Amino acid sequence: MSANFATLVPVFNGTNWAEWSSAMQDYLRSQALWQLVKGGNPRPEVQVGSDGESLPETKEHREWDNRDDQALGIIRLRVSPEIKNQISGNSSEEFWQALENAYSKPGASLLFGDFQKAISFRLSGSSNPEPEIGKLNLLLERLRANEVDLPEFVKAMILKGPAHCAQRKGY
Questions:
Q1: Comparing C-alpha atoms, which of 138, 21, 36, 142 is closest to residue 83?
Q2: CA 20 to each of CA 11, 17, 23, 57, 165: distance values in angstroms, whole numbers, following the listed order
Q3: What is the pLDDT along the chain (171 residues), one digit of tens a residue?
Q4: Which residue intervals make up region (Disordered) (predicted)?
Q5: What are the residue boundaries of the structural domains of the chain, listed by start?
Q6: Taking Cα atoms as reference points, which of 87, 86, 72, 148 lies closest to residue 115?
Q7: What is the distance between the alpha carbons of residues 33 and 55, in angstroms, rounded to a whole number?
Q8: What is the pTM of this model?
């Protein structure tokens, strides 16, 4: 596993599903593990002998199990302990599905997380503002898509920043 893993994939905290799942999917793809997680590469069937007894598992079974364990471990490493203890799944696919079912639909905590990010937005002032404004626009669009439509003056206050608003009021 790459040392950059921790910088590429944030820790999932329950409010950052969109960002986390996208980064995790990209990382798992880069490790050729995403097909296991999404169910596109099922575990090989256990062969049954002529007597009806299961034959011993093959090297192919053990390799699949090891890759699934690797994928599950990677996912669990970037999930907060509080969430990890609440979600169950014996395979990477089951664990991912449980996370997706619990957190992919925007609930109050996800929307509040996006709102917090939006109101704490600050332009760095040291580089081209286009990427930073793009991130803010993405947050505002996600909020709007979930029926949290901020008035234009609130968006303007976010873009200007608290110091500018305080100066104007004389605080």
A1: 21
A2: 7, 5, 5, 35, 33
A3: 555 888 899 999 987 888 999 999 999 999 999 999 999 888 888 777 777 776 677 899 899 999 999 999 999 999 999 999 999 999 999 999 999 998 887 777 778 888 898 888 888 888 888 888 888 888 888 888 788 888 998 888 888 765 544 444 454
A4: 41-62
A5: 5-103, 108-169
A6: 148
A7: 27
A8: 0.62
Q: 148, 111 in Cβ contact below 8 A?
A: yes
Q: Tokens at residue 107, please?
A: 């609930």
The encoded tokens of residue 152 equal 């234009």
